[in-house]
Amino acid sequence: KREKKNxxxxxxxxxxxxxxxxxxxxxxxxxxxQEREKKxxxxxxxxxxxxxxxxxxxxxxxxxxxxTWGLLASLPDIDTAGDELYTIPGTPPNLLKEIKGxxxxxxxPFALKIDEKIAPPMFEITPTHHVASWLAAPNAxxxxxxxxxxxxxxxxxxxxxx
Length: 162
Fold this sequence. Notes:
- By secondary structure, the protein is α+β, with helices and mostly antiparallel strands.
- It has helices at residues 2-39, 56-61, 66-73, 147-159, and strands spanning 42-46, 49-54, 123-126, 129-131.
- The longest helix has 38 residues, at 2-39.
- The protein starts with a helix and ends with a helix.
- The chain is elongated, with a radius of gyration of 24 Å.
- A 4-stranded antiparallel beta sheet has the order 1-2-4-3.
- It contains 4 helices and 4 strands.
């Protein structure tokens, strides 16, 4: 009887050790995944200038620049099969000529008057997420991304569990 108790006790101890080891491994895996995501920083450029910079999740699930909105809206997915894809209006600027102001302003339906005169600096959204858009300035009018893109991002966010 005592032998049986000792075997059961040893088995429980072994299970407990295994459970703790699995928990440590899950934590290490999560930490490694977070580190990989940090390293996988994304940048979006327009006319040779970085216009949005951040982690993969920040760029894909919380984009702040209208050009990034346009890029994400133009990506096909299973749900848009057969639908016409979104295209960013206008044409890119001629890079052989001097660009005054924000290069994306002529194609940007959310452009402000200042965009025509002065190129925006990088504004900090979070310590790892920056955007070159006057819409991110503290005194700028509040502009939301298009609702269809917002819904699509939310759907993708839920699918990715982010």
